[in-house]
Design a protein that fits this description.
With 314 residues, the protein is α/β, with parallel strands linked by helices. The chain contains ten helices and nine strands. The relative contact order is 0.13.
Length: 314
């Protein structure tokens, strides 16, 4: 199902939610107190090179408060702007399938009972943080609510994954997507444009490769440098080329044109903290980035999927 508009020539998440749930849908990001195998020593203690030393992924609620307290606080802020809508609870910080099965079951089920208007659950995690027990639990949750698993990939190039200290390869990612889809669980993939050493061709190959997987959504981010990360120390010692706004917009538009038009585009830009950002400064202007993408697509009559070369999974 395609949800293009005059303004947006690609399938936006907002339009998809409105069609599916017939109302505005808000994500409320909660912190379940998870960590990551790439930080706790199971794989590495360094994390991915763009992760903060103090704990990248500290988004949404405060882990020192209960899920109910986190949810109530964030909901109250959202209601100041939007009075009516449904909610999707989003476990965003770190790897949210990385923990004892009892903890996962408790947190997932608790999250679904926080409010009568909760209609879904999003779980952000890594492809190497699954087991048969976890797949079975997710299959159970998927029968109760609108479940989406968000998987960080960043690039399909194993050379890049090694360079950014991702801690797993593409094959593991492919296998995880396959296992989730066997259980009819929605999958959203995160990719990053502008990773060190990657060319435009490599970034387009990443987008094109996603078409070979049975995925339901994509988040596209730009690389930015923030303080207290391994990447910041590399950059300060020996600055490397970062994408300009014009380059990022051009590459992202080309990726959108490659992507199967059944894939929902959850994001086309990142959202760095102004106080943490080192470079590039244009990444702070997320609305301008999105508008420039829209303008380029409208000007040149470009649409998501117009250069798609495969067959739909629908």
């Amino acid at each position: 199902m395609i949800f293009f508009t005059d303004e947006k020539h690609y399938n936006t998440l907002n339009n998809f939610y409105r069609h599916r749930f017939n109302t505005k849908v808000f994500k409320i990001a909660l912190n379940g107190g998870f960590t990551c195998p790439n930080r706790d020593g199971k794989i590495s203690t360094a994390g991915c090179i763009f992760c903060s030393d103090s704990g990248s992924g500290e988004f949404g609620g405060d882990k020192h408060f209960s899920l109910k307290e986190q949810f109530t606080t964030i909901k109250a802020m959202m209601e100041k702007k939007w009075k009516v809508g449904k909610y999707i609870v989003y476990f965003q910080s770190f790897s949210n399938t990385y923990g004892p099965i009892k903890k996962l079951r408790r947190l997932y089920n608790e999250a679904l009972t926080l409010d009568e208007n909760i209609i879904g659950l999003n779980i952000g995690t890594r492809a190497d943080c699954f087991s048969e027990e976890i797949y079975d639990l997710l299959e159970e949750i998927n029968k109760k609510t609108y479940l989406t698993i968000e998987l960080g990939l960043q690039s399909v190039h194993d050379k890049t994954l090694v360079q950014i200290n991702r801690g797993h390869n593409l094959e593991i990612f492919i296998n995880t997507v396959s296992e989730l889809r066997k259980r009819d669980i929605n999958v959203v993939v995160h990719i990053i444009n502008g990773l060190p050493g990657e060319t435009e061709e490599m970034m387009l190959e990443t987008a094109d490769f996603l078409n070979t997987l049975d995925i339901q959504g994509v988040k596209i981010h730009m690389l930015y440098i923030t303080h207290s990360t391994p990447l910041s120390r590399i950059y300060i010692k020996k600055p490397f080329k970062l994408l300009t706004l014009k380059e990022y917009v051009s590459i992202t538009v080309k990726q959108l044109c490659l992507l199967n038009d059944n894939i929902i585009i959850h994001r086309v830009t990142g959202d760095p903290d102004r106080n943490d950002l080192i470079a590039p400064e244009w990444t702070l202007k997320k609305f301008i980035v999105a508008n420039e993408i829209d303008k380029l697509m409208r000007k040149n009559k470009l649409y998501q999927g117009m250069n798609y070369r495969g067959e739909s999974h629908e």
